[in-house]
User: Fold these one by one.
Assistant:
Number 1:
Amino acid sequence: MAIIETRNLTKQFGSGDIAIEVLRGVNLTIETGEFVALMGPSGSGKSTLMSIIGGIEPPTSGQVILDGIDLGTLDDDQRTLIRRRKIGFVFQAFNLIPTLSALENVALPMELDGVPRNLANERAAKALERVEMLHRRDHIPSKLSGGEQQRVAVARAIAIEPVILLADEPTGNLDSRQSGRVTELLRSLASDLNQTIVMVTHDAQVARSAFRLLKFRDGNIEKDISQDDFARDASAFQISSPQPSTG
């Protein structure tokens, strides 16, 4: 079953002579339980695509269908509810509230959405257990390592039981050991819990943990490669900067 579909998706910033076309008719289908990595040089459109899928940015034209819902038919309040209840976000910056414990950080978005505190705490504890952080539930972020903070951020994202998890450079602030643990965690969420994940990364090693790789260039998908074909296309994980125009 398709969780995400984009149809002829375009995104343009600015207008007239200064218009920049970031996405150029992207057509994409992501099935339930897929773990998809997006790679490409800066400015290729991958992060813009993630923002549009997440209901943060509207497209210039085209459609985004999330779990059967056309995001373009929703008003701002409805899109906010979709983001709050159907989409989990994990960013390079952990975005944890420094004065709250790990448990409180995970529970807070649910409480703000009207979930009773006892139920929010129960779901938060289950999410922390899933990311192997329940033993640190009472620690504030400054008492946690970078990898531990990111696992708490992942717990916060999955506690709402989202239909899709969007991760934007989730290992960008981590060393190689911590990066490996977070990457392994994301892969286990997809393989064990059937969690759909879309991840932007510049790290080839991180991208290799995904089940599918989408290589972006110049606002569109240059390559769509399944995990079975990773070994056959070594160049897929190489990112080259756009060449300056000589014209």
Number 2:
Amino acid sequence: MNSRRAVFLDHASLDLGDLDLAPLRQAFGELELHAQTATDEVAERLHGAQVAISNKVRIDAAAMAASPDLKLILVAATGANNIDLDAARAHRITVCNCQAYGTPSVAQHTLALLLALTTSLPDYQAAVRAGRWQQSSQFCLLDFPIFELEGKTLGLLGHGELGGAVARLAEAFGMRVLLGQLPGRPPRADRLPLHELLPQVDALTLHCPLNEQTRDMLGAAELALMKPGALLVNTARGGLVNEEALAAALRSGHLGGAATDVLTQEPPRDGNPLLAADIPRLIVTPHSAWGSREARQRIVLQLAENATAWLKESPVRVIG
């Protein structure tokens, strides 16, 4: 136990009451939990704290300047776009994130979405609820297309730890896996340029970061290169796929289906092109792919590890 005071600004975004926070509590003399924190509350809540923990609450230069005791920011996620890293360096505040905690959860969600599309699962579920099976003239209802993954080709954009996990699951279903070249990355012999990859794949899944090179990576021209009836699954970041173009490709019937766990604005309070009711063969999940209890517990453990290592002056997972 030590005398350090830590403030978790938005712990309800991580803990649904089902996690063991003991490792995190043991890392600090005092752990103050706030379910959520508004922007104008950040500085007040961090006053006198040496450690800030944030999942999505923004900690900007002004908040750091108003928190002279702050020495460590723990990000309860991988992405740290909510932290002003330049200001953190200027104030000599160490920033550590969490990494690879959600690989099994996101990988299985990716395959679940792909399977839901290939089996027309949402359509069949809706048909049963509407009473169509009950009224069928035969024992089964086969009103919607069903396709097998066996023998199909999966394209991957992003082949790090997560993309690799998805590739292994896809291969277990008998799929052939092709890797695509990400914009802005050095060419590699084992990566196909988009214009070569897209016409070959029966399904495409995304596992890459959003940056200036990958924003709108798949627009109308790229989607048009995909096979008629091909499937697209995005569990990476909103903005990788142009949402208007995707809606148009689904409405026209060019794509056989799409599923996304991410949108450009989250939550989509101002609406979104992909939330329109008339888009066929589209599944939208609410950025929940990462959220298994096991994955969230790994975040708690990594936060505690990051804190303990920093206290021992040997910080790990440092990003700023």
